[in-house]
Amino acid sequence: MFHELIWVLPFILLLGSIAIFPLVNKHWWEQNYPLVSLGLGLLVALYIIFGLKNTGSLVHTGHEYLSFIALIGSLFVVAGGIHIQVKGEATPAVNCIFLFVGAVLSNLLGTTGASMVLVRPWIRMNKYRLTAFHVVFFIFIVSNIGGVLTPIGDPPLFLGYLKGVPFFWVLENVWPIWLIAVGVLLALFFFLDSRNFKKAPKEIRLKETAHEEWKFLGAHNVFFLLVIIGAVFINHPLLLREAMMGLAALLSYKTTPKQVHEMNDFNFGPIKEVAVLFAGIFATMIPALKWLEQNAAQVGIHSPGQFFWASGALSSVLDNAPTYLNFLSASIGLFAGPNLAVGEHAQVVGLLAGHASYIKAISVGSVFFGAVTYIGNGPNFLVKSIADHFKVKTPSFFGYFFRYSLPILIPLFAVIWLMFFRS
Question: pTM above the 0.85 mark?
């Protein structure tokens, strides 16, 4: 076991680098992050190929990464061809309505799709008084917690759907938790945004509340957006899903007027950064996920509350899709015997019939805790990169966690645990 855990160190080093180097030497990190990320990823890949002689896991993870970046990248390109300008006042009330609509759309377009479509309008409508908490609450609500109601909303839920969880089961069972979480975050945001709005100089407030014309340019890209969302449900033949996403992104980019891209200040910098960093993350997390798969059922996790915290804690730093599957397998093993792989729908249906609270805990934990760090969910880092490109002052990795996640999300999740999962 100790030998296996040593190979978790590259993953820890990469997370530490993402958190520390931008604070210590931002310029050096901007120049060298590809070397750090890809170097550590290559180190683990070589160990898997020549040390473990297990190229299968590497190929499987490579396909998962390709699917991840195809979805993230295609949505980034297509959303970059849609220009939305909201008419009216960017008051605290209007901002809350915008975020609530974003939370609903996250279940229809996915958290990535909703984030990419809405983040630029969000930045523009608050441009005269935009602060770090505007970006953070957007990530909390639109990029993560909002998308817990449907399998389209977040990858773990889609995997659960493929394994036998009915499409509307999550909506029917999780909507009270969604309503409480989104409601609490919106109330807190309204309080913070009201203070921010009142402190703004009068001339800025007049600018902010000036009426603007509705603008929706690049409407043809809605079709390409729907093509990408539809492609998510394609599993065979191999790589057809990714090919459709790539084709939709290419056609979108070629058919979008240059003016729209310029109005969105569109460039490929943010997606390049995400692609490079997550290539290293996907490679270095293989040993960590393997250890979890082999030991999840033996580490004393038995109650729904423990599954909620455990799946959530790991989803905040690991890819939440395989984390969801591993804990789903572990929960089945509790009642159907050890070492049972999640393969047959009957196993999941049986768990739903007798112990549905376990699937509910894993679903909520995997999705909600993705908001705890920048790397907890794919859209998080992409939203940060876009905000940075627009010169928005965003929190550092540690600043995001200690100033926002720790004092806001963790107490909220504790309340949810007390209300729904403690017993």
Answer: yes
